């Protein structure tokens, strides 16, 4: 029995920790929302590795882990209401209302787990349809639940989806074709700036978002080809460095193109040395240099999408944005899935596994790699275009190296080559970065200021604690640690692609020379 | 890996290069590369050019020392040690903390500051070498048999971790007063080196400034590089290092402890990074936790420019990159300097991946 309990505890510890952290730092109804999401995940995975004959058995399998996570939620809810809130100087909850929040979260977790568990017991074809239907329903009603529960996560969820899309694109380059791209944010920037230039008052061009979206994607793809053409014949680690250099150049370019004036070079040089500067033929910005990118101040405002019934998308109403990016993500997911199974996708796998053998089999290496680069850049351009229009302002500092590494982190954490894994990685990393860390910082600050600092006598330590305990300052550390630990422990990621896993672990049986 | 040949018609080649040069001349002025203006400025004030060359030489010498760390590690285990630039940044922080602990400030005379500087040099070299050895042991060694991208990604992770440690270190102002209040702000490094204008002392009338500060940094860099070169060329350890770089398996058969040699490479690279951190602090009088990334990329560019794995090449590349940055700061536009340096990196890799002096790396299938 104790062994079973241990097993039970082990199976719920990760999800339970996430759930209780959520309720500890967000409070309120957030426990119910996270319980709903995690419960569904539990139901989806509880039948794994076992034969589930019918819905009843599936539900039975899911109910216990669901209950386990629910208990975590209940305890966390009590801790949050009775201790954490008073400790951070806010008004605490009464025992009954904290219990109410906790029990409600528990019930929802169990219900979600049971529903999804039962679905896993259906016959195979119907199971797939029903699982898809359930997940689709969650994706569709999420904004409403978010509004009712007042968790205010939706703005972040939209950003998460933008990055999930970027991760899907990078997955083509790194996961499918095995080319390490460290300057992926550059294509994101190019997509965003194309949108910014074509639908803002910067150049006086104000095209419709729906027209600019594909243009931005195509331009990002073309830049991918231009960058890739001279460099893709290099060795793997050199490609990484060239893309890194490119990723560093692009923000510098966007930062500094504030007074553009082009003159035809040959006539200018001849003119200058003959002493007739007026010979130079001016091509662009002749009367007055053009301010192309707005420098550090960026481009602002950028046009928003318009649809017949909804009207213009506004920044106060997140619903249309949410559904638009959801559609884009689903579209990318299916498109990339089809690409992977195509002839091109199989050549990518071949190149990743053994370049020499692939080229011997008649695969044109440069062309295939170039297509991977271009495809990855195209999806990045899509995401950039949406991003520019969603934020309505873009600055060069948004697209620096750390963004490229965050996206790389997602791909590696989730599982190289596996689209579902990459999406999961994106959700984990972005929600940790944009949702949990800032909120955790806020809660910690409250607790420090109200309960810890007054009790510390030593002014040095007081000063140190007040300035240095800030989880948002630890982002880089966490990303770095994720990369290192994943490489050491599980280089294939959380949800690995089957072929990739074999590749990474295949030569472990070989003896070192 | 097999060399894959890409055939192109020679005439095409010329047209392509001419087209590229034309595009470069057309777009260059956007990034400050305006030949006629640059030539005009040089003609107007040639002394400024010499001044910038001197600045470039000194900065280049520091870059070269960082580049040595990249090139040695790459030569031996074919890993682009991304964390090396951040290691150099930590070297600067260690040196600043050590100098602060000795209580030396701007107003100290050079007799007072000589011993603290030497102590700071030793401390930062030891700290950086230890960090480098630890990262090698725990982050790179377990991945030596893994696909090549795995250690590279691990190195990027270490680079981020070190950068965050630098940020955290900068926030320790309550324990280390020299760090000041704000964690992310640049830290001011005391100006300890004597600043005597050599040319004026020699009685040469010119606007060019070359002070003892420049000379000390330059001489120290040359000393380190010569020492390393002699070490690699003439000692048993150096011979073993070259053997491992050429062929680790054969070296092992010859009785060389390969792991030990790799650890020693990281030790030397780390100590050089620590020394470079101190030198940059003393020379520029300011350090910041993000300086490692840019400096690291410049140094890596230098290593690639000279031919990676090639120690003399790294020195040459470092000086060239230093000159390029100094001239670009003066004549193009300092806002574009980074773009120029990375453009050199991209161009070198695209057209001459072996670097100027040829790379010294075994291609393994």
UniProtKB/TrEMBL annotation, chain A:
Keywords: Cell membrane, Membrane, Transmembrane, Transmembrane helix. One of its GO terms (molecular function) is branched-chain amino acid transmembrane transporter activity. The keyword Translocase does not apply. It is found in: Cell membrane. Its main location: membrane. One of its GO terms (cellular component) is plasma membrane. It is a multi-pass membrane protein. Pfam families: BPD_transp_2 (PF02653). PANTHER family: HIGH-AFFINITY BRANCHED-CHAIN AMINO ACID TRANSPORT PROTEIN BRAE, HIGH-AFFINITY BRANCHED-CHAIN AMINO ACID TRANSPORT SYSTEM PERMEASE. This is Branched-chain amino acid ABC transporter permease. It comes from Merismopedia glauca CCAP 1448/3.
């Amino acid at each position: 029995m104790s062994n079973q309990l241990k097993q039970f505890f082990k199976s719920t510890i990760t999800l339970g920790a996430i759930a209780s952290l959520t309720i500890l730092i967000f409070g309120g109804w957030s426990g119910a929302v996270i319980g709903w999401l995690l419960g569904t995940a539990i139901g989806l995975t509880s039948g794994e590795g076992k034969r589930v004959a019918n819905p009843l058995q599936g539900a039975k399998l899911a109910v216990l882990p669901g209950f386990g996570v629910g208990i975590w939620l209940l305890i966390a809810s009590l801790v949050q209401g009775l201790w954490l809130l008073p400790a951070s100087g806010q008004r605490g909850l009464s025992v009954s209302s904290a219990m109410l929040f906790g029990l409600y979260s528990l019930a929802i977790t169990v219900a979600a787990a049971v529903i999804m568990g039962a679905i896993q017991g259906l016959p195979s074809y119907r199971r797939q349809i029903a699982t898809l239907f359930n997940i689709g329903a969650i994706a569709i009603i999420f904004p409403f639940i978010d509004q009712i529960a007042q968790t205010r996560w939706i703005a972040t969820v939209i950003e998460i989806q933008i990055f999930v899309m970027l991760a899907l694109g990078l997955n083509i380059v790194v996961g499918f074709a095995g080319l390490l791209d460290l300057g992926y944010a550059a294509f994101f920037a190019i997509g965003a700036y194309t949108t910014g230039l074509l639908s803002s008052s910067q150049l006086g061009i104000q095209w419709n978002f729906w027209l600019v979206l594909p243009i931005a994607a195509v331009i990002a793809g073309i830049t991918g080809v231009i960058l890739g053409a001279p460099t893709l014949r290099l060795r793997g680690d050199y490609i990484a460095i060239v893309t890194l250099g490119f990723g560093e150049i692009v923000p510098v370019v966007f930062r500094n193109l504030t007074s553009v004036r082009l003159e035809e070079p040959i006539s200018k040089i001849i003119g200058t040395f003959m002493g007739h500067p007026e010979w130079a033929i001016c091509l662009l910005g002749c009367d007055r240099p053009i301010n192309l990118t707005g420098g550090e101040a960026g481009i602002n405002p950028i046009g928003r999408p318009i649809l017949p019934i909804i009207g213009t998308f506004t920044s106060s109403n997140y619903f249309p944005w949410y559904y638009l990016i959801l559609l884009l993500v689903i579209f990318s997911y299916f498109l990339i899935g089809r690409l992977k199974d195509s002839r091109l996708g199989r050549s990518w796998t071949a190149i990743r596994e053994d370049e020499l053998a692939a080229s011997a089999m008649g695969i044109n290496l440069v062309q295939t790699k170039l297509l991977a680069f271009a495809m990855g850049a195209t999806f990045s351009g899509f995401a950039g275009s949406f991003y520019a229009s969603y934020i309505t302002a873009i600055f060069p500092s948004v697209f620096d190296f750390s963004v490229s590494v965050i996206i790389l982190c997602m791909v590696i954490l989730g599982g190289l080559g596996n689209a579902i894994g990459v999406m999961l990685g994106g959700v984990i990393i972005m929600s940790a970065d944009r949702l949990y860390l800032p909120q955790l910082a806020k809660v910690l600050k409250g607790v420090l200021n109200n309960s810890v600092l007054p009790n510390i006598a030593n002014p040095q330590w007081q000063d140190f604690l007040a300035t240095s305990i800030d989880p948002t300052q630890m982002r880089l550390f966490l990303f770095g640690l994720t990369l290192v630990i994943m490489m050491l422990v599980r280089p294939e990621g959380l949800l690995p692609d089957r072929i990739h896993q074999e590749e990474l672990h295949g030569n472990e049986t070989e003896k070192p020379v | 890996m097999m060399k894959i040949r890409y055939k192109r018609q020679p005439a095409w080649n010329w047209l392509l290069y001419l087209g590229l040069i034309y595009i470069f001349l057309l777009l260059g002025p956007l990034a400050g590369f305006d030949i006629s203006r640059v030539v005009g400025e040089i003609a107007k004030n040639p002394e400024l050019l010499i001044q910038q060359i001197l600045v470039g030489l000194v900065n280049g010498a520091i870059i070269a020392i960082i580049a040595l760390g990249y090139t040695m590690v790459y030569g031996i285990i074919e890993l682009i040690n991304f964390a090396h630039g951040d290691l150099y940044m930590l070297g600067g922080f260690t040196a600043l903390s050590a100098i602060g602990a000795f209580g030396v400030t701007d107003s100290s005379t050079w007799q007072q500051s000589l011993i603290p500087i030497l102590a700071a040099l030793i401390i930062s070299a030891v700290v950086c070498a230890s960090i480098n050895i630890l990262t090698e042991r725990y982050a790179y060694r377990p991945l030596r048999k893994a696909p090549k991208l795995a250690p590279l990604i691990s190195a990027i992770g270490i680079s981020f971790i070190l950068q965050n440690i630098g940020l955290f270190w900068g926030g320790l102002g309550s324990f280390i007063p020299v760090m000041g209040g704000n964690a992310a702000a640049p830290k001011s490094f005391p100006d300890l080196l004597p600043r005597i204008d050599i040319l004026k002392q020699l009685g040469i009338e010119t606007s060019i400034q070359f002070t003892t500060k420049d000379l000390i940094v330059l001489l120290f860099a040359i000393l380190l590089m010569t020492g390393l070169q002699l070490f690699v060329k003439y000692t048993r350890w150096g011979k073993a290092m070259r053997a491992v770089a050429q062929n680790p398996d054969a070296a092992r058969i010859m009785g060389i402890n390969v792991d030990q040699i790799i650890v020693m490479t990281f030790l030397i690279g780390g100590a050089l990074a620590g020394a470079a951190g101190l030198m940059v602090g003393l020379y520029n009088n300011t350090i910041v936790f993000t300086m490692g990334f840019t400096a690291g990329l410049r140094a890596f560019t230098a290593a690639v420019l000279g031919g990676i794995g090639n120690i003399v090449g790294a020195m040459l590349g470092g000086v060239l990159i230093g000159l390029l940055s100094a001239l670009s700061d003066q004549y193009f536009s300092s806002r574009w300097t980074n773009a120029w340096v990375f453009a050199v990196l991209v161009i070198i890799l695209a057209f001459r991946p072996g670097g100027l002096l040829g790379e010294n790396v075994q291609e393994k299938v």
